[in-house]
Amino acid sequence: MSENEAISALNIMAESNVLFGINWAARMDNVYDFENVVVFAEGLKANNINILRYKPSAREDFNVYLLEGI
């Protein structure tokens, strides 16, 4: 699913009064975007944000995305 398709699906759910939440995986390259995710979710009236730990695939170098201290 592309980013545009995901945003389109979120907008459809928001307009349909369906209870929904947003899953967000925290990584080194996006951790500072969390405030923007909260603002986006509030704008859609999402019911929750689930913060997920990063789970790299076997083909990824997890050190690139791993948060310090974890």
List keywords for this structure.
70 residues, alpha+beta, two-stranded parallel ribbon, 34% helix, elongated
Q: Any chance you could write out the topology, listing elements then pairs?
A:
Blueprint: H1 3-15, E1 21-26, H2 34-44, E2 48-53
Biggest sheet descriptor: 2 strands, parallel
Which residues sit in consecutive blocks of at least 5 with pLDDT less than 50?
A: none
What string, H for helix and E for strand, traces the elements in order? HEHE
Which percent range fits the helix content? 25-40%
Mean pLDDT: 86
Quaternary status of these chains?
A: single chain
Give the terminus-to-terminus CA distance.
Answer: 29 Å
* Sheet with most strands: strand arrangement: 1-2
Q: Over all CA atoms, what is the radius of gyration?
A: 14 Å
Strand content: 15-25%
What structural class is derived from the secondary structure elements? alpha+beta
Shape assignment:
elongated
Give me the number of helical elements.
2
Tally of extended strands?
A: 2
Count of folded domains: 1
Summarize the structure.
Helix content is 34%, strand content 17%. The chain has 70 residues and is α+β, with helices and mostly antiparallel strands.
Q: How would you describe this protein?
A:
The protein has helices at residues 3-15, 34-44, and strands spanning 21-26, 48-53. The chain starts with a helix and ends in a 17-residue tail after the last strand. The protein has one domain (3-64). The longest helix has 13 residues, at 3-15. The protein has a two-stranded parallel ribbon. Strand 1, helix 2 and strand 2 form a beta-alpha-beta unit. With 70 residues, the protein is an alpha+beta fold.
